[in-house]
Design goal:
The chain has helices at residues 2-24, 51-64, 98-106, 117-127, 223-232, 251-260, 270-276, 280-287, 301-310, and strands at residues 38-43, 69-74, 84-87, 110-114, 132-136, 148-153, 182-185, 198-203, 214-218, 237-242, 265-269, 290-299. With 317 residues, the protein is α/β, with parallel strands linked by helices. The chain has two domains: 2-193 and 300-310, Rossmann fold (3-Layer(aba) Sandwich), CATH 3.40.50; 202-297, Rossmann fold (3-Layer(aba) Sandwich), CATH 3.40.50.2300. The strands form two sheets. Strands 3-4-2-5-1-6-7 form a seven-stranded mixed beta sheet, sandwiched between helices. Strand 9 (214-218), helix 5 (223-232) and strand 10 form a beta-alpha-beta unit. The radius of gyration is 20 Å and the shape is globular.
């Protein structure tokens, strides 16, 4: 019933998205043909599909091939619409984005935030310091003519207009799959990594006790996926406090709920850990421990070959 009520708003979202891409952004009529290649990694889902981990895995792989990789992320600061800024491992995530800081820490690549990827692309191209750019999201930016566009799709996803926000978790319909240069299939539970897919494996710190009662702190676009992955890994979950995407859960409420559930500690992702760093002392004083769960991403061989072919690289050994 709720979805039926929200479907007219989903149609409005689709219409506003069309106008935004084709009128407000003022897309170029022809490709810019930048000498600097760009690979855009997006998804059907509005968040939580795995874009940032896939960008990170691609950046690491291409760096090992000897390429100088630059990474673009969305700048959360709405007042810098036509600027771009470099992010380091020490940057305050609130001044840029949690994803940008995570990528700066976990890759040896230079990372930038911007709300105008096309302008950043053009100006970074002029610097002549990179062999390619990876864009974490940006499929809806119609100004990125000539970029290689890769989209992530989770198993069974084929959304229509009635599945768009706010009626569903999507910001694009399955129709866009035909326009992509590469469709990347997300991980099915328990399945091996597909040729044109990726597989995610959670990495726990040494000595981690999965049977202890854990409370999740999560500010991701799709927190249920993280919870499902934890349960699949045999972790005992007492509950979860959700915050907005790119945000922090209400910690006062989280402490209260975790105490009532007799939770013995907190769990979070590496991306959420960046946002919670300033609260780490408070969290540990109340519950003694906050475990950060890392992840390893395996990319399919067909996906890697497709990217290498686009960049005119010899195939990996």
């Amino acid at each position: 019933m709720k979805k039926l009520i929200l479907t007219p708003l989903a149609w409005l979202y689709a219409a506003s998205g069309f106008l935004h891409r084709n009128i407000w952004l003022k897309p170029a009529l022809q490709d810019r043909h930048h000498p600097l290649p760009m690979i855009v990694v997006g998804s059907l889902r509005a968040g939580g599909a795995g874009k940032t981990p896939v960008v990170q895995a691609l950046a690491k792989h291409l760096s090992t091939r000897g390429l100088k990789v630059g990474i673009l992320c969305y700048w959360l600061n709405k007042y810098n619409s036509d600027k771009w800024m470099e992010v380091t491992s020490r940057s305050n995530w609130q001044d840029c984005s949690d994803e940008a800081v995570l990528l700066a820490r976990n890759t040896n690549c230079r990372v930038f935030v911007t709300r105008n990827r096309e302008r950043a692309w053009d100006e970074l191209n002029r610097l002549n310091q990179f062999d390619l750019l990876l864009s974490d999201d940006g499929l809806m930016d119609s100004r990125l003519k000539g970029a290689f566009r890769m989209i992530l799709r989770m198993p069974g996803e084929s959304p229509g207009i009635s599945d768009l926000l706010p009626a569903g978790p999507y910001h694009l319909t399955a129709k866009i799959l035909d326009e992509m240069d590469c469709v990347v299939e997300g991980p099915a539970p328990g399945a091996e990594c597909g040729e044109f897919g990726f597989r995610r494996e959670l990495i726990f710190p040494e000595g981690f006790d999965p049977l202890k009662s854990w409370w999740i702190l999560c500010g991701l676009g799709n927190p249920d996926m993280f919870r499902t992955d934890l349960i699949r890994s045999g972790v005992r979950i007492a509950g979860m406090s959700r915050g907005p995407n790119h945000g922090v859960p209400d910690l006062k409420r989280a402490f209260s709920e975790a105490a009532r559930a007799s939770a013995g500690g907190f769990l979070c992702t590496a991306k959420d850990a960046i946002k919670l760093e300033v609260h780490a002392g408070e969290i540990e004083s109340k519950f003694g421990v906050m475990v950060v769960v890392q992840e390893h991403i395996e990319l399919g061989t067909g996906l890697i070959r497709t990217v290498e072919r686009y960049l005119h690289l010899p195939p990996s050994s």
